[in-house]
Design goal:
31% of the residues lie in helices and 19% in strands. It is α/β, with parallel strands linked by helices. Strands 2, 3, 7, 10, 11, 12, 13 and 14 form an eight-stranded mixed β-sheet that branches. The protein has a single domain, classed as Alkaline Phosphatase, subunit A (3-Layer(aba) Sandwich). Residues 1-29 form the signal peptide.
Length: 389
């Protein structure tokens, strides 16, 4: 096969969010194949039970009396329904280019730290004591025969772990326009509360930030935010030599007022996926898989602030012309109290790494033993869920 160039580049068009970097890095790699993989990390713990609602479960409504009716939804298969915030993706569902995996999680349990959970998600390891400090995408690339790294370039002072590894990496921190999520605004307000000087100045700054974020004629219109700019850039690179891209969408930490918050970030995710498709040719989209993963799910019950707290089992979003869509994949555990993990969270029935592993096997033909040994140490792939066409 000869010499193969491995290239990691990036661009930061970030927004801040609870428990996630203030700058969102992007990692990319060129590879000797036509199939494209986009990994989107949903930082902050996306509530899979709100995104893909198990309306057919008799215990669901009682767990969330105020959340379920806060926003509308679209029926998927008579049992599960899609949050209205992702309603723009329904044409992909009907075209067989969108699917979901439910009741999934990494092996991370009980501590519920965003930072630890995200590190495990990006490293693809079973626990924090594994001693593995590189990312699973980087390890995957290292297994491809004849693929010799020449240049690795990570954006921002802190490189994205998922594509970090033995390849030499340089860093660059571009000038970026910062955007604050509502969760971060609340954190800053709490920090500033007892300092009158910072409280007044900070409050004025946040007011300006809200005007820019939410729009009053001078802010961003729908479909024109940083997430759309980012998706356009990634699509442009994927039409060139890039075959693997990974970046983050932040703002999924919904402890309070979850209804409006999750709707807004879901709309961002929907626009991101649709922008990726629009930026690719029909042929390229047909060979593309987009997988959206989060560090853990959220509690089955709503809390006293019309939100949800850190949980365990969650959901994945899969899109693309290479995806076998129109399905919600799940060995559904049920939501009865005895069925919940520690009587509080959705019980995970599948390792999120197994789904990622089957994507790598289907897209790039990696042997199962390589995926279980080198890419995701300690993983048991289990039965093929048939994620791809």
């Amino acid at each position: 096969m000869g010499r193969r160039q491995f290239l990691v580049r990036g661009l930061a068009l970030g927004c801040s969010a609870a428990a996630s970097p203030l700058v969102t890095p992007v990692a990319m790699a060129a590879a000797p194949w036509e199939q494209r993989l986009v990994v989107i990390l949903l930082r902050g713990a996306m509530d899979g039970l709100d995104v893909v609602r198990p309306l057919g479960d008799r215990d669901f409504a009682a767990l969330r009396p105020d959340l379920t009716g806060a926003t509308g939804h679209r029926d998927l298969d008579g049992y599960f329904a899609l949050h209205e915030g992702l309603g723009a993706l329904m044409p992909l569902w009907r075209a067989g280019e969108l699917s979901f995996a439910h009741a999934v999680s990494t092996p991370y349990r009980d501590r519920r730290s965003h930072f630890d959970g995200q590190d495990l998600l990006e490293a693809g390891v079973p626990d924090l004591e594994s001693g593995v400090h590189d990312g699973w995408l980087n390890r995957m690339l290292a297994t491809v025969p004849g693929l010799e790294p020449e240049i690795a370039y990570a954006v921002e002072e802190r490189a994205m772990l998922i594509l970090s590894g033995e390849a030499p990496v340089s860093s660059w921190a571009p000038a970026v326009r910062m955007r604050l999520s509502p969760a971060t605004e609340e954190l800053l307000a709490h920090v500033w509360h007892d300092d009158p000087l910072f409280r007044e100045a900070g409050g004025a700054a946040l007011s300006i930030a809200r005007t820019v974020r939410d729009g009053d004629g001078s802010g961003e219109a729908v479909g024109q935010g940083p997430h759309v700019e980012l998706a356009r850039f990634v699509a442009e690179r994927l039409m060139g030599d890039t075959r693997i891209a990974s970046f983050s969408i932040n703002g999924w930490d919904t402890h309070q007022s979850q209804g409006p918050r999750i709707r807004r970030v879901l709309e961002d995710l929907g626009e991101t996926i649709l922008t990726l498709k629009a930026g690719l040719s029909a042929e390229a989209w047909a060979r593309t898989a987009v997988v959206c993963m989060t560090e853990f799910g959220r509690t089955a019950r709503q809390n006293g602030s019309n939100g949800t707290d850190h949980g365990t089992g969650g959901a994945m979003v899969l899109a693309g012309g290479a995806v076998r869509g129109g399905r919600v994949l799940s060995d559904w555990p049920g939501l009865g109290e005895a069925d919940l993990y520690n009587r509080r969270d959705l019980m995970p029935t599948r390792d999120v790494r197994a789904h990622a592993g089957w994507l790598l096997r289907g897209l790039y033909g990696l042997p199962g033993q390589t995926i279980e040994g080198a890419v995701f140490p300690g993983l048991e792939l289990g039965a093929d869920p048939g994620l791809l066409l």
